[in-house]
Amino acid sequence: MITLGEGRTPLLAAPRLSDRFGVELWLKWEGANPTGSFKDRGMSVAVTRAVERGITRIVCASTGNTAASCAAYAARAGIEALIVVAAGGAASSKLVQVRAVGGRIVEVDGSFSDAYRKAEELASEPGSLLVNSTNPDRIEGQMSAAAEIVEQLGSAPDVLTLPYGGGGNTKAYARGFDAAAGALPRFHPVESASRADTVASAIRIVEPIHHAEVAAAVERSGGSVLTVSDDELLHAWELLRTLEGVFSEPASAAGIAGLERGSARAGERVVCVVTGHGLKDPAAIDRLDR
Predict the structure, then answer these.
(1) With 85 labelled, which of 72, 205, 206, 256 sits at a CA distance of 20 to 30 A?
(2) Helix (H) or strand (E) holding 92
(3) Both 31 and 58 in a single domain?
């Protein structure tokens, strides 16, 4: 198993935010994973199986967190990592993580979709494998978070709210709750209204790859996709930091912005997935001061 100790992340009670929203709120703190984001769960499984198949180079397109995870697990496995990013589309601190462990970065002009197409092209070469969330091993690894929540709470929550970029995590949680609890909480993925240039760089994806699976999970659970402004995201980010002491990157507070929109009813048990550590994008704090 190619592992850095991912998973088994804390489920933190959030008493002050619970009082604010009139719910029982828990924070699934995925920033506690080895490279600072939830991506490590799926990357461990994907890289393990890649090595079993004789793969010598893994490739991904990324807005930053997948890049850092891909490079770290490739280094752990002793294989090459090739990271494709849209120029200016990823937080510089995440790319530092890539360079620090020996990953190679390829920049392309355009959006995440352009980077993804380039990554697909590179991954078609012999000995290479794409490890974006379209890789089923990634989804399988990320399912583990839902099982942990059921174990930590003793049951599934009433509501699950989380950031919505490409949609792979929503897809994984839906499968995970099906497997662990036999039913879904009400799903409320939260996206930015300005997907192309949102301050929340981790969800800066114009065309969600897993759009259909997200729509199906939301409909089946009786939930909804919520679209919020960058001002709402930044306000939610401030609440998470200053009321509960959890320093996430801006995108990770999307679920809190969803609660501000009324995604949960009074007294409901809510889990908000906080997907990445604040040190993934520390410059975001500096931008607030200007």
Answers:
(1) 256
(2) helix 92-100
(3) no
Please provide the DSSP assignment of 148-198 as one string: HHHHHHSS--SEEEEE-SSSHHHHHHHHHHHHHHSS-PEEEEEEETTTTT-
What is the pTM assigned to this prediction?
Answer: 0.95
Q: Does 6 reside within a domain?
A: no
C-alpha–C-alpha distance, residues 31 and 125, integer Å: 33
**24-29/11-13 β-pairing:** antiparallel
| Tens-digit pLDDT profile for residues 80-112 | 999 999 998 887 888 999 999 999 999 999 999
Q: Residue 183 belongs to what domain range?
A: 11-38+138-289
Contact 59, 82 (CB under 8 A): yes
d(CA 59, CA 241): 34
Domain boundary among 101, 135, 169: 135
Cα gap 244→236, rounded to integer Å:
11
CATH number reported for the structural domain that contains residue 27 in this entry: 3.40.50.1100
